[in-house]
Amino acid sequence: MPSQTIVSVLGLIKECRWKSVKAMLARIAAPDLKEILFYVGEHERGLIFRFLTRKKAAEVFTYLEPEEQDMVLDTLTAQETRQILAAMPPDDRTLLLSELPSEVTHRLFDLLSSDDLEEARMLLGYPEESVGRIMSPDYVRIKADWTVDHALQHIRFYGKNIEESLNMIYVVGDEGVLLFSVRLRTLILADPLDVVNQFIDFEGDISLSALADREQAVLLMQKYDIMALPVVDTENELVGIVTFDDIMDVAEEEATEDIHKSASVNPLKVGYHRAGAFDLYSKRVGWLLILVVLSILSSSVIAGFEDKLSKMTILFAFVPLLLGAGGNAGSQASTLVIRALVTGDIYLKDIVSTVIKEIGVGLLLGVTLGVTAAGISYYRAGGTPLIAVTVGVSMTLIIMVANLIGMLFPFVLSRLKIDPAVASAPLIATLTDVTGLIIYFSIAVFLIKL
Fold first, then answer.
1. At 237, phi and psi to the nearest 5?
2. Distance from CA of residue 128 to its chain's centroid?
3. 3-class DSSP state of 146
4. Could you give the C-alpha distances from 92 to 46, 66, 226, 300, 362, in angstroms and in order?
5. Concatenated DSSP letters for 66-92?
6. For position 1, what pLDDT does the model report?
7. Where are the alpha helices (DSSP H) in 145-213?
8. N or C: which end of the chain has fewer CB within 10 A?
9. Domains in the chain, please, with CATH?
């Protein structure tokens, strides 16, 4: 159901009250305008976009998904498109050019000014998942030997045309090498005759390489709790900044990617709403086939013990109980370790201490669940103590082994330079199923003398 704002805008357009339409659109925030644009028809969409100021139109454009941007571009003239591209922040423009179809991107290149074109090609030259792709080359830098008064005059003059954050000011040497960063607030509150190098809020080593993985930007911004980070090249020369809004987008994308991987789904490149049925199929079928093949190992284990276990079929009744608990324990351990590795809470060097810790956790969990399972099996097996002992001991060992598998697998993947999120819950559960069956049936054969 359309909101009252959408109804009001459509009513004004229908009555051809263009001045009122323009005035109303000027009061609506850019994210809300995005919702309006894709509720109305193509004709109204073009009218609404043309009533926006150049700056507002560029801001709204940055909130649109690539397909939506392509649809809007189809309704605009070349001159209108040129104006929007010129008004967009460089990092948002780079994102647009990298995600649109190649033929559209080439057409937009022709509409850019020579400076914007050079800037776009420079940013697009960085690797796709690098900090360089999301950085903005618009920032203010000052010299360490300037007075505070000189620095503030410089910031006022050059900061007027910068769309990005001015919270942090970057101090460079003669060759453009980053020396340190200082908060704008620090300079505003300082004595005008003081020298800039008296105020160091963040040393120069608190920066990012333009070639670094963009996930490092998320971790560094979380660690130092600042709104913008400087980006340097291999010579430590300042080349740009990454800001909080871009980092939030990266954090959301990375979290979504890890969630997909944890469910054995290859990460979607677009949102679920925009993904087609075949896209969803292709992202899921690969892992499902792998898990089916791995499940054959479980079948082989059952087949190997079939003759002996046929003498006491009651044992099969407890297979779901044992395997379910083992899979859950392994998935829990895997999830905890993956998150700890991703956030930098633990590192590869911590594997020994983590193993010792998880052995203790596994033992406690195993004994707790083992006693519970023994009680359940004693009742279900008609009061047979040997069955209860078999199930209880098996549960304890299965939980301990599953816990270790879930904990170790992310470490192994990290050592092999593979994203530990690949250690998904379904994969861990499948592996623990195989080991669980071997443990259970081996103990049953040994204790019950089948």
1. -85, 135
2. 14
3. coil
4. 21, 11, 21, 54, 48
5. HHHHHHHHHHS-HHHHHHHHHHS-HHH
6. 41
7. 148-159, 184-189
8. N
9. 4-125 (1.25.60.10), 141-249 (3.10.580.10), 277-448 (1.10.357.20)
What are the b/e assignments for 327-340, b being 16+ CB within 10 Å? bbbbbbbbbbbbbb
Write out 90-151 in H/E/C secondary structure. HHHHHHHHHHCCHHHHHHHHCCCCHHHHHHHHHHHCCCCCEHHHHCECCCCEEECCCEHHHH
What's the rounded Cα separation, in Å, for the pair 16 and 9? 11
Rg (Cα) of the chain, in Å, rounded?
Answer: 30
Look at the chain and count its residues. Answer: 450
Kind of pairing between the strands at 228-232 and 208-209: parallel
* SS3 state at 229: strand
Closest CA to 395 of 446, 444, 440: 440
Return the SS3 of 181: strand
Residue 317 corresponds to which tokens in the numbers above?
Answer: 């009744």
Query: Could you tell me the two tokens for 187?
Result: 């300079």
- Tokens for 447? 């204790």
Distance CA 99, CA 437 (A): 48
- Residues 6+ positions from 169 with CB-CB distance below 8 Å: 140, 141, 142, 151, 155, 181, 182, 183, 184, 187
CA nearest neighbour of 428 among 339, 342, 330: 330
176: alpha, beta or left? (left if phi > 0; alpha if psi -120 to 50)? left
Task: Name the one residue in this structure whose structure tokens are 């605009």.
Answer: 76
Query: Strand pairing partners for 143?
Result: 172
Annotate 237-258 with DSSP letters as a single string: BEEEEEEHHHHHHHHHHHHHHH
Q: Which residues contact 151 (CB under 8 A, 6 or more apart)?
A: 142, 169, 187, 196
Each residue's pLDDT, cut to its tens digit, for the chain (450 residues) gives 456 777 777 777 777 777 887 888 888 888 888 777 777 777 777 777 777 887 888 888 878 777 777 777 777 788 888 888 888 888 888 887 877 777 778 888 888 888 888 888 888 888 888 888 888 888 889 999 999 999 999 999 888 877 777 888 999 988 889 999 999 999 999 999 999 999 888 887 789 999 998 888 888 888 888 888 999 988 889 998 988 888 887 777 777 777 777 776 777 776 666 677 888 788 888 878 887 887 888 888 878 877 776 767 788 888 889 999 999 999 899 888 988 887 778 888 999 999 999 999 999 999 999 999 999 988 887 778 888 999 999 999 999 999 999 999 889 888 888 777 765 677 888 888 999 999 998 898 888 775
- Whether residue 142 contacts residue 196, with contact meaning beta carbons closer than 8 Å, is answered with yes
Rounded CA-CA distance 184/201 in Å is: 10
Query: Which residue type sits at 277?
Result: A
Phi-psi region of 195 (alpha: psi -120 to 50; beta: other; left: phi over 0): beta
